[in-house]
Amino acid sequence: MTSFNHLKNLFFAALFGAVVFFAPATFADDSGGGGGGFGGFKPDAFKPDMAKNLLANKGGGQKDIEEKDYRRYGIRNYFYVGLQAGMVNYAQPGDETLDESEHTDGATFPFVNTQLKSGFVGGLNAGYQLTTEHEFFFPAYRFGVSANYFGGAKLNGEYYYLFENPDTLNSYQASVSSQVLFLTAEADIFKWGPVRPFVLVGVGGARNVLSSYQLTGPQAGIFAIDGQSQMGLAYEAGLGVSYYFTERLSASISYVYSNLGTVTSKPVTWQVGDKPIALGSLSYSLSNSEYLLGVRYLI
After folding, report:
1. How does the average pLDDT of the chain come out, rounded?
2. Cα 279 from Cα 100, distance rounded (Å)
3. Max alpha carbon distance in the chain (Å)?
4. pLDDT(299) > 70
5. In order of start, what are the domains of the chain with their CATH numbers?
6. pLDDT of 188 over the 90 cut
7. What is the distance between the alpha carbons of residues 269 and 104, in angstroms, rounded to a whole number?
8. What is the DSSP string of the chain?
9. Lower CB density within 10 Å: C or N end of the chain?
10. How confident is the model at residue 36, as a pLDDT?
11. What is the pLDDT of residues 57-95, one digit of tens each?
């Protein structure tokens, strides 16, 4: 946990530094013909009045305005493609107790010390960027689709066989993964040279999978726990910072909170003689914090 806290602190330090350190000093005025600008940007490249003049003169003295001029002055919109990857820290699930009162006199099976360990996430996104004529605030909006895979998370815990007796303590482990499809909306909050902080929201569906249960302990042989897949509603919200290396290519660092619904096991069975007894299912909520790096290209 300590190492994760160090990574989390480094992440937020990098997020803050991306805004402060990469201030657009290279965006100094180049009216004298100097080399100001960065990666193809010019200080007047996104001025609304210049964009309007280009449109106004399209049918007059500037009939031969080229496609690159439209793109340069931000008067057209773009399709985009991108990818993102990072680490996922899950909220810890609570303990559960399964009971069996139909065939026994109040037998209980406490499942305790449950931990859902960190995993990874990776995915692709594509959509449409709407560029405004605003020179500073809210220069662009994006609407798209994001497909992500969450994996590498391990569910660990312990359970007691018939009440909390130290001699009947067993352990279990399982794998958790998710395939998620989001409809997303993003807004660049402001433009500071090549730096653009943004916010995002998304809603969609998740297919959560609980698998590879392994039981160990003195009573492991008389229990059976199997995983299964489950569909559910998912949503996300986050913020980040993009840095534009060129007019079309950017990289980002972001924090996203997401809730992927729940994942549930098949009913736990207790083998009593020749007859298995169903004790109920184990259910876990999949809410998490994501720390992401991404790249995006405007087409």
Report:
1. 79
2. 6
3. 93
4. yes
5. 77-298 (2.40.160.20)
6. yes
7. 14
8. -HHHHHHHHHHHHHHHHHHHHT--GGG---TTS---SSTT--TTTT-HHHHHHHHHTTTTTTTT--HHHHHHTT-S-EEEEEEEEEEEEEPPPPPEEEEE-SSSSSEEEEEEEEEE--EEEEEEEEEEEEE-S-SSB--EEEEEEEEEEEEEEEEEEEEESSSS-GGGEEEEEEEEEEEEEEEEEEEE-B-BTTEEEEEEEEEEEEEEEEEEEEEESTTGGGEE----EEEEEEEEEEEEEEEESSSSEEEEEEEEEEEEEEEEPPPEEEEETTEEEEEE--EEEEEEEEEEEEEEEE-
9. N
10. 40
11. 544 444 344 355 444 554 468 899 999 999 999 999 888
Sign of the torsion formed by the C-alpha atoms of 69, 75, 76 and 82 = positive
Do residues 253 and 292 make contact, with C-beta atoms less than 8 angstroms apart?
A: yes
Instruction: List 201's β-bridge partners, or say none.
Output: 185, 237
Both structure tokens of 27: 């965006």
Give yes or no for a contact between 98 and 296, defined as CB atoms under 8 angstroms apart: no
Q: Could you tell me the two tokens for 105?
A: 């006199």
152 has which bridge partners? none
Give the Cβ contact number of residue 186 at 10 Å. Answer: 24
Please give the Cα distance from 190 to 139 (Å, whole number).
6
Q: Which amino acid is at 267?
A: P
Which residues are within 8 A (CB) of 47 and not within 5 positions of it... i.e. 6 or more apart?
73, 135
